[in-house]
Design goal:
By secondary structure, the chain is of the alpha+beta class. Helix content is 43%, strand content 23%. It folds into two domains: 159 residues, Regulatory protein AraC (Jelly Rolls), CATH 2.60.120; 99 residues, Arc Repressor Mutant, subunit A, CATH 1.10.10.60. The protein is built from ten helices and seven strands. Strands 1, 2, 3, 4, 5, 6 and 7 form a seven-stranded antiparallel β-sheet that branches. The longest helix is centred in the middle third of the chain and has 30 residues. It is elongated. About 4% of the residues have low confidence.
């Protein structure tokens, strides 16, 4: 899928169901020769401002310097070692949920060191918003949350691009083997199928068959993984597309209903009004 692999598209389709909660944010400095072995109960993101820190995470070693980010997952053990001059960094603890699915980022391989060059603009915005937050400026907490959202979205975007590139280079068997390692990726055939078949009614049974599950097990697995039921997810993406079509102004209500698999304009208008609290005729 253009713009990244299918599972990453959840962040577009279900963006209004994302919940970001910040628990703490502050500056910290560690001296030379400082070290720690630790794990955090929530997500932890560091923005390195001065010096360097060497890290061992998930069996991989690396060094982060000024401008680089380090993302830690909840419960992830790591070891950190300060460089010769120590290091100063800005840290933020947070949780990131999708619908009923807590800590949705766990389903994606994002933890580790993020090169500063890849997120320079968003990282600088985050740093400047922290300065306002520290001064207790009006609405500074909102700014901080917004800047963290932008920073995370950039990290997700980078990961989606890398994931798409990797999938294009792998042999089909290799992709299949890797897909089994991540629960979210087992649903990729479902996401792809939905995007290509919104123009017609789709039964939950059809989706379950795409991934070789019983209908009952599929509904449970989908909700646990995605955070919403498959029926609601279909409703959500249809309403997203309806909004886009209406903004284009090139389709009639009848045409949009057909494009989105509704039997008639009345059924579409009823579904649209239930979601947006106004009929499509008043949305243009």
């Amino acid at each position: 899928m253009k713009g990244g692999s299918a599972s990453f598209q959840l962040f577009n389709e279900l963006s209004e169901h994302l919940t970001l909660r910040i628990s703490s944010c502050n500056l910290m400095r560690h001296p030379a020769a400082w070290s720690e072995k630790k794990q955090h109960p929530d997500y932890d993101l560091w923005l390195i401002l001065e010096g360097t820190v060497s890290l061992l995470m998930n069996g991989a070693e690396g060094t982060a310097g000024p401008g680089d980010l380090v993302l830690f997952y909840p419960g992830m053990p790591y070891s950190a070692f300060a460089g010769d001059s120590g290091y100063r960094f800005l840290y933020i603890h947070f949780d990131f949920d999708l619908g009923d699915r807590p800590r949705i980022l766990d389903d994606y391989e994002l933890a580790g060191i993020v090169p500063g060059a890849a997120v320079a603009e968003e990282a600088e915005l985050f740093r400047s918003c922290y300065e306002r937050y520290r001064s207790h400026a009006i609405a500074s907490s909102v700014r901080l949350k917004g800047s963290l959202t932008m920073l995370l979205s950039r990290i997700i975007e980078q990961a989606a691009e890398a994931d798409l590139c990797l999938r294009q280079q792998e042999e089909p068997a290799s992709v299949s083997n890797r897909t089994k390692q991540r629960q979210m990726d087992t649903l990729i055939p479902v996401f792809d199928f939905l995007q290509k078949n919104l123009h017609r009614p789709i039964a939950i049974r059809e989706l379950a068959e795409r991934v070789g599950m019983s209908e009952k097990y599929f509904i449970t697995s989908f909700r646990q993984t995605v955070g919403v039921t498959p029926g609601y997810y279909m409703y959500q993406i249809r309403m997203n597309r309806a909004r886009e079509y209406l903004h284009l102004g090139t389709y009639t209500i009848k045409q949009i209903a057909a494009l989105l698999g509704y039997p008639d304009p009345y059924a579409f208008s009823k579904a649209f009004k239930k979601y947006y609290n106004r009929p499509p005729s008043q949305f243009r």
